[in-house]
Amino acid sequence: MSTDTVSPLASDALRPLRYLWRVPLLILHVLLGIVLCGTILTWNRNAVMKNGREPFTHRMIRWWSMVLLRIFGLRSVRVGQPLADPVMFVANHTSWADIEILHSQRAACFVAKAEIAHWPLVGWLAAAGGTIFHRRGNNHSLASVMQVMVERLQAGRSVAVFPEGGTGHNGVLRVFHARIFQAALDANVVVQPVALRFARNGQRIVDAGFREDENFMQNVLRLLGGPTLDAEVHFLEPVPASPDARRRMADISRERIAAALEDRPQ
């Protein structure tokens, strides 16, 4: 696996300059997000895709997320094609940016940890975007979350989950929890694995996600001042439904994502 190819000295020299123009743009973009969430998203919260055509609110979410990534120096790159709604996307998880990276290509209802709901501003923005909050380690919460997932899927919305149950570090892809796949079976929708990958010149940058013991704000500040990266979204081959083998569905999804994360020969 590759690490950042920009030398520390060059990176440190340019970091203050990046903050000079990225911070004001970020503030303006967040203010715009507040206005959009308080108006368009609130009025059209339940809009769904029809005949393969995205509703305006979904296109707006994709645009806002793509611009947010560009402010952080991340260029959203799609590989493969997302299936039409409704579908359950399952993706690897290394950073808070993963939600925006996938949102830049397809608007979906994410399942996220309940603590985010209480974060100032971020929690409100996430809720406005359709986030489903889950208290980790709480079986009752998981059952409620899965019920909401099924309802959203049956209503025509796509749902995105991180089956690892948390963020990984140093490029390590953890075991996928199988129980979450039951929601796709209950709603009778397809599961499509999605590999989220930071890269430069085609080589994976594993250090762009959370470092061990790094909190949300520390990672935000590090990325905000960092050099430009590609944020790749690989939409992979759908996983066959296996009503009696959720574990197999989880393993196949993980295998396909792991293969897509590997560097390709130049």
The major beta sheet can be summarized as: 8 strands, mixed
State the helicity in percent bands. 40-55%
Low-confidence stretches: 1-10
Distance between the termini: 14 Å
Helix count from the secondary structure assignment: 8
CATH fold-level assignment: Glycerol-3-phosphate (1)-acyltransferase
How many domains would you count in the coordinates? 1
The 3D shape can be described as globular
CATH architecture classification name = 3-Layer(aba) Sandwich
Write down the Rg.
18 Å
The CATH first-level class comes to: Alpha Beta
Concise overview:
The protein is an alpha/beta fold.
Explain what this protein looks like in three dimensions.
It is a single chain. This protein has helices spanning 8-43, 56-71, 97-103, 122-128, 139-154, 182-187, 216-224, 246-261; strands spanning 74-79, 87-91, 109-113, 132-134, 159-161, 190-200, 203-204, 229-235. It is of the alpha/beta class and 266 residues long. The chain has one domain: Glycerol-3-phosphate (1)-acyltransferase (3-Layer(aba) Sandwich), CATH 3.40.1130. The longest helix has 36 residues, at 8-43. Residues 1-10 have low confidence and may be disordered.
